[in-house]
Amino acid sequence: MNIAHHLDRMAALRPDAPALAHGDTVLVGFAGLRLRVARLACALRGRLGLLPGDRVAIVMPNAPACVEILYACWWAGLAAVPVNAKLHAREIAYVLGHSGARLAFVTGATADLVADAARFADETPPRVIDADGSAFADLFAGDVAPMTDTQANDLAWLFYTSGTTGRPKGAMLSHRNLLAMTTSYFIDIDPLQPGGTQIHAAPLSHGSGLYMLPSVAQGNCQVIPASGQFDAAELLDLFGRWPHVSMFAAPTMIKRLVDHPAAATAAVDGLRAIVWGGAPMYVADIEAAITRFGYRFAQLYGQGETPMTITGMSRAMLERFHRAGDSAGLASAGCAQSVVRVRIADADDRDVPAGTAGEILVRGDSVMSGYWRNPEASADALRGGWLHTGDVGELDSRGLLTLRDRSKDLIISGGSNIYPREVEEVLLRHPGVAECAVIGVPDPEWGESVLAFVVARVPGAVDATALDALCLAHIARFKRPKAYRFVETLPKSNYGKILKTELRALAALG
Fold it and tell me: Which of residues 119, 150, 181 is at a domain's end?
């Protein structure tokens, strides 16, 4: 089934309900959005000559046009290639060339960025259309196209990974994958109701764009903040202006919302749920968020290779853990979602006992078919019929998954495994610590030793002696950091993830 069917269905059921908005202004209802999508799809296939399966890149910051373009691609049987608008021109050139995109939509500053990317292109650059220009507006002036009757395994979204360990890989997500993801969201994470709102403060090119699918399927309005990005003050204001608000946020975004001075008096009655993902959230931060906003939080754990669908923790589950004082439950990533099987395996892909750390493996209808134009990486990632996530975790007797770290972040000191998150959780117990990140650095005696980067809430609020004593009170001596480095900020990606690769480079400089 074509994933655009959900828009078509809602246009029939709720034609006049708000479907797309910018800031606090409704732009179009569901019937109007369907009409614009069908006209754009007609232009893509007719006037622009694209064929089923062709790739269309969207190199744009968050904007209402992103929603229209995504659904028009699917309506026309094309594959969308959303691209992080903050990438370097060389990185964009690689994605455009590797995907073989025939068309790229841009806007604002990304027009110059894509033009600059052509200097690095090894293949013929795609045709470029500025979504702010008259050429884009003209695409909506023609006839409408019937929705393409796609097959379940047809490519819908070419999801490029962040490329932190090399060049990014394009995870091939089919209509079947996206439908499984959408279904699982309703069952396991947040049973949305018609008439709600989805605010997109995180990039539509990745996490937030995926959350759009279940939201549209339930007739929710897609709201693009006027700033087009995450702004804590703006979001707190929007929470009071829109009904039944849901939103995806990285843990660092939630922390910024909680810490914002306006959060104490903001009207949040309209806020239904903030679902976090992209990285684990520390227990101290979860508790602070609940204190500030109440039981309005849920969690999901997924990857681009199995979008939003590995494990999840609903609002009710999180509330139960919190009221019971179950810190292990709060620290977990929840249980396996309904459309996948999850297991933990050793280096030989053998199951390990409950409570034992190993690599997280996943199988189900949400898992990608492979990486675009990369059969070797596909075979390795999907060996034995299971997606090998590269993440380390453990399942307890309740079926709760606790994420430890990426396998590359594991520290091995004196032959003992040390999981950075375990140390970070302890450091964050100190009231003077705002943020922290732990990495392993070469050690001539132990192989690796633990180095902690710490951001103090105010200068001088904490020192190494206090943190060392805290660690000795809570974890084994061999796990405590051998050194502490106090910094003003931690390097983060556009999605709020702490970049430990940059921390390692900084550590190597001494």
Answer: 150
